[in-house]
């Protein structure tokens, strides 16, 4: 039984040595308890620090470590995709986990056991978020709430820490969309599922590569890739506003014919801004979807591999 542990890394030189040590300990444990032979694949997502040098060094030192390097920073989701494509066909199961090991790597033992018990996809689900900042916790909660409404298949508090069987990965790789939101697609595969619960830890070293800006972009991506609810919402909002404006027109005509025309300056100004705001938002939402169509239609390659340790 061959298992790959895929680890995307972007500027992770500070945490990488610890990651390697911990994963090596874990691998020894899995070999003993679950009787299978895991391998690590680091995907360097175009880091600008010494991450790649470290990966090369560790792969020389330890037989169980491999690495590929993307020619450019393509983002977490694409890095995961690159790792899965690279391992596809060579392993019986693939686990994806972040380089900072905020997700408890020891859960992989349980994942492997569930896999051998016949589960195709095993999700790592965070039980607690004690170590995240208040802001991260609240924003994540709000996001999962919205996402749940938009896509009720969504698993609360599951990020991209999961195990997938070879056939689940093969199925996943058939989704050709460029706007990747993996945790949404994986749910659509329909193979047998299992869950492993763990407490999320603080980052061991280095800082988050997901600043607020990227988090917002990723949330919008998640929602708009899995739902056209925002489009429906703006249509209804537009209809409601049209209806309201009929009432206002009737009122304005009445005011005109009863001779009090100079009044209503305030309501003019207010409604002008309100309508302007709603229209602009509507155009913005349309723009997001059109933007997605644009990237899908161009169908550009997701990444290029510029280097391998093997
Ligand atoms: N990552 C990546 N490419 C990027 C940004 C992040 O491969 O452009 C990796 C990063 O190295 C880490 C994982 O994605 O292994 C998750 O990032 P991070 O831990 O910074 O996010 P957070 O846990 O703060 O949401
Ligand atoms: Mg992290």
From TrEMBL:
<keyword id="KW-0812">Transmembrane</keyword>
<feature type="transmembrane region" description="Helical">
    <location>
        <begin position="266"/>
        <end position="290"/>
    </location>
</feature>
<feature type="transmembrane region" description="Helical">
    <location>
        <begin position="233"/>
        <end position="254"/>
    </location>
</feature>
<keyword id="KW-0328">Glycosyltransferase</keyword>
<protein>
    <submittedName>
        <fullName>Glycosyltransferase family 2 protein</fullName>
    </submittedName>
</protein>
<keyword id="KW-0472">Membrane</keyword>
<dbReference type="InterPro" id="IPR001173">
    <property type="entry name" value="Glyco_trans_2-like"/>
</dbReference>
<keyword id="KW-0808">Transferase</keyword>
<keyword id="KW-1133">Transmembrane helix</keyword>
<dbReference type="InterPro" id="IPR029044">
    <property type="entry name" value="Nucleotide-diphossugar_trans"/>
</dbReference>
<dbReference type="InterPro" id="IPR050256">
    <property type="entry name" value="Glycosyltransferase_2"/>
</dbReference>
<dbReference type="Pfam" id="PF00535">
    <property type="entry name" value="Glycos_transf_2"/>
</dbReference>
<feature type="domain" description="Glycosyltransferase 2-like">
    <location>
        <begin position="5"/>
        <end position="171"/>
    </location>
</feature>
